Every structure is written in structure tokens, then in C-alpha cells.
Amino acid sequence: MLRRNLAELRSILADAPAPVADPQLRVAVGLSPFAIVAVRVRAYTAPMTDQPAAGAPPVPPADPNPDCPRCLKPPALCVCEGIARTDNKVSLLILQHPQEQDRELGTARLTVLHFRHALIKIGLSWPSLSKILGRTTDPQRWAILYLGSVKAAALLPDRDVVVVNRNGNAVDHQDQVLREIEGIILLDGTWSQAKALWWRNAWMLKCKRVVLGPKLPSRYGKLRREPRGDGLSTIEAAAMLMARLERKPEIETALHACFERLLARYRAAHPNAGARRRR
What we know:
alpha/beta, 6-stranded mixed sheet, 30% helix
């Protein structure tokens, strides 16, 4: 009887937590004075909040008037609406100097939006024309707007687009040479930036060279003073070249109208803007 009661007491004390059972009593019945106690821990269920952590920089508010994702101009200067793309056969490539930051009056991106087969690349140098286009291309079948001192009016006064050789002389069979051109390359930036692009890309020497002879000065007028009297904006140069090569005068009309809208909006937004000299 005593043995049975002792066994029952051991069973009770073995299951009891240490704070409940007296250690001396446990030893008396042959148990360890210590017991392992299982504790149930509740999961952390505090609600999460949107409050930033202490010391975190504040999140700037969203711009209520973000730039247009197509032309990258502020809303007051965006003229993308209504642009109809031309399905051009002669490709257009614009290489822009990375420091060309005339975001308001620049026209490179606006020009590209007018053509289905047009591309703009920003950088200083590329190993080849094929690398830029992502396909095998013969640069000799492309033409670049030449930056030399040659003037079209001095070579062929009756033409506003003239193909010249490395010596600056007009090549023979102008119409045939122009028909064989597969693509046009324009260098976008100030005159010094465009020259830097020219000297940094030796493959350009393989391209044909064209010079322009505009009958009127740039539509920039007093907003931008060009270092040369025959200097044109990128969109004006593209308008003249693409209209002649595609034999579609409506191209020139559309690009000029778009440029005029941009200039009108700029003058409205900056009524006191003075002329900016390009170098």
C-alpha cells in the first residue's frame, strides 16, 4: 500500500512544474529537484503600419505635372498630340551627345516620333553602325550630315541637298547617289558636341557625306543663335533631308508645323526669353 502511494506521488510531482512542486519533496521521492517547463509563446500579431522607420528620409511627393513620356518635355511644351508617323523607306538615326541637355528647345526626340523607322541613341562612341542598329549594315550605303565648312550653295546652287566626297567636292550623278542611300545619320548637340561625336566614331568616315543649303535661316530665330548662318535645328535638317530622299514634300510640312507649335508654346511660357548662343 505504501509503495503504491509513493508511486502515485512520484507521477504527480514528475508532471508538475518546478514552481508548484517543492524541490525537497521531489528529492524525497527520488526525482530531480529541477523540472523542464514547456512555455507556450504567442506569435507577434501587432498590426503593420505605413509609417516610415525612425530616421528614414521622407518620400518626395509625386510631381503633379510630370514630363511627357514620349518627347520628355514638360506639359506646357509638349506637342506630341496629333503627330502622324510616316512609314519611311530611308531610315533615320540620331546620335545625341550625352551633354546635350536642352530639354525645352531640343528637337531630337520630337523628330524621331514622326517616323516609323527612326532611332535615337545617346552616347559618345560606338564600335560600328551595325552595333547601333543591331543588324549587319554597310555604312557606305548610309549618309551623314557633314559638319565641314563646305556650303551647298557654293557647289551646286540649284540644289539644297548635295552629296560631297572627302575633298569637299560634289560627287557626280547626284540623283542616283541620293536614291541609293538607305539611311541618314544626324548628330545632335552643340557644334562642339557634334564635332566630338564625329571624331570619336571612325566608322563615320565610311559613310557618304551630305551638306544642306537652306534657303531660309532656322526657325529658332532669336531664341537660339547658331554659329553658322546655315545652321538648322535637328528637326529642320531631318525635314529637308527626309522630304527629298522620300520624295514626299508633306514630310517637311508636317515637321515644320510641329516645330512651329513648339516654338509658339515656348514663347508663351517664356515671354522674356533672350537668345541663347550655340557653340
